[in-house]
């Protein structure tokens, strides 16, 4: 009777482990694991229990009790491996969401192109083969955007590199061993960078105005010649992650560190610009 109670507690323990972990993990993680792995996880406790019974069948109660921790360790190892797989699924899902947020082409690929029916709404061949047709009325606006973009990018580079060099001179001119200089130096450097970022923000606003003009011109042409889905796809490709890609990693990181949002004109084009 004592051994039966012991085995019952053992099974309940395994069940509680699974239930607890299910409560911790988002539903999408389990949907990514696949049916076979889920069934394996659910059946593992029963398998270990059966192995325990068979392996200790010829043992006396004391010997059986001594063998119990070894089989419990097997359950713990499986649970640990399952946790690693669940964490990997979570990381993969996060990576996918970031790709869709920061790269317009990846957003199209993952949300549209991976869907077999996307070809019914997005006429990709038309975008490439009929460029002369849908772009013809907008060539002047496109040229203006390209020229403005190049000029503004040069100004942004000059402002940003100038601020970085200025900040480095301030830091190099301070005494790292003097604690009293740390806070004033930090404030000066932050003010230098913030001023530069705000100047860059104004320049980016002008780029977004010109880009908006381009989209306003080409979108009706694309809808007419290549179907509405093609125009929407072009907008997604151009706008999602636009500023992040234009800025580069270093400049984008400084905007994030100072928690500075894009200009309202840019945000009006797309929330993930």
TrEMBL record:
Origin superkingdom: Eukaryota
Keywords, comma-separated and alphabetical: Signal
Signal peptide segment: 1-22
Protein's UniProt name: Secreted protein
Species assigned in the record: Panagrolaimus superbus
